Every structure is written in structure tokens, then in C-alpha cells.
Task: inverse folding
């Protein structure tokens, strides 16, 4: 959703997003049989495929071997995927602020095709299981969200304090460190 003349923010480039989505769907789809996909919402079965991948990360190596034509840059992003419980603390004009559950680090996160607040129906202050990965110099979510919990004002205040401490300690990352 973009206003004429306004720069698209909070999401990655659409071409890159669809490259990732196509590769992710193809890969995760190979981890499930037809019966496991039948009569299920695609997001539901993709989340099941992601769970299977997280339980056995070697499945990606097998996929790379069987599909040498696959988009290796996108497969590298999948290989770096971290699925955890995240706190979606707030939005800025350019990104959403996520903290890991333990409050050890904070990240500037972009969505694939939708702003995260649109996915969460306008809410920030949400705890959820989601995937986070480096993609072309930014932190991006895989957009498979599970176990949403809206946080109350006391939790939000506490996580806000943690975020400010993390920024002061330079533990807020807008993108992965360059190699």
C-alpha cells in the first residue's frame, strides 16, 4: 500500500520478495507429502514445512543437491533463518523493531510483501514465533507467523526499556554484519 510519490518502506523490493517466496515455497513444499498439504491453508502447511526444516536442517543440503538450478542466494537466506519467539515492539517509518525473547538483541526488520503491522492487523506489541534472516544486507521476516500474543502495557514498557538499553549498548542491528 503506497501513496503516489511516497517511497515504499518497511518491505523489501517486490522482485526480491517474490524470488524468496518462490524459492521458500518450493523448498518447504518438498518437505511435506500431498496428504499433509491437502485441504490446508498454504501458510499453515508452509509453517509445518518450516518446523520440519528447523528439526532437520540437513534437508536444505539435500534440496540444493537435487535442485542445482534453484536460486542459491535465496537458499543461503533460508540456511541463515532463525526461527524464534520474537517481540514486535514498534514500527518506525522504515522498519519494525524486533527483540529476541531474552532481550539480548534488537533488529530492524522488513516484511516481504506487507508491512508487519498490516499482517498483525495494526498491532505492535506482539509476541510471536517467526523466522528472521539476512537478505541483501537487511533483516527480513519469512512472514510465517505463529502463536501470536498481544502484550499488555506493562510488558510493552519493560520491553521498551530493554530496547533503549540495547540501543545504548549498540546491540540494535539494522542489517547483518558484512563479511
Result:
Amino acid at each position: 500500500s503506497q501513496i503516489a510519490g511516497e517511497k515504499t518502506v518497511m518491505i523489501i523490493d517486490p522482485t526480491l520478495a517474490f524470488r524468496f517466496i518462490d524459492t521458500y515455497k518450493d523448498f518447504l513444499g518438498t518437505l511435506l507429502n500431498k496428504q499433509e498439504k491437502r485441504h490446508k491453508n498454504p501458510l499453515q502447511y508452509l509453517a509445518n514445512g518450516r518446523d520440519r526444516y528447523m528439526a532437520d536442517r540437513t534437508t536444505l543440503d539435500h534440496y540444493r543437491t537435487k535442485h542445482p538450478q534453484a536460486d542459491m542466494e535465496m537458499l543461503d537466506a533460508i540456511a541463515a533463518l532463525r526461527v524464534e519467539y520474537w517481540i514486535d515492539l514498534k514500527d518506525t517509518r522504515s522498519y519494525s523493531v524486533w527483540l529476541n525473547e531474552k532481550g539480548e538483541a534488537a533488529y530492524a526488520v522488513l516484511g516481504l510483501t506487507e508491512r508487519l503491522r498490516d499482517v498483525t492487523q495494526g498491532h505492535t506489541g506482539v509476541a510471536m514465533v517467526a523466522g528472521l534472516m539476512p537478505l541483501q544486507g537487511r533483516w527480513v521476516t519469512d512472514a510465517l507467523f505463529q502463536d501470536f500474543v498481544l502484550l499488555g502495557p506493562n510488558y510493552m514498557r519493560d520491553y521498551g526499556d530493554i530496547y533503549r538499553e540495547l540501543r545504548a549498548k549498540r546491540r540494535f542491528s539494522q542489517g547483518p554484519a558484512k563479511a
About this structure: The two ends are 34 Å apart (CA to CA). The beta strands are 82-91, 96-100, 106-110, 126-135, 138-141, 146-150, 172-173. The chain is about 40% helix and 25% strand.
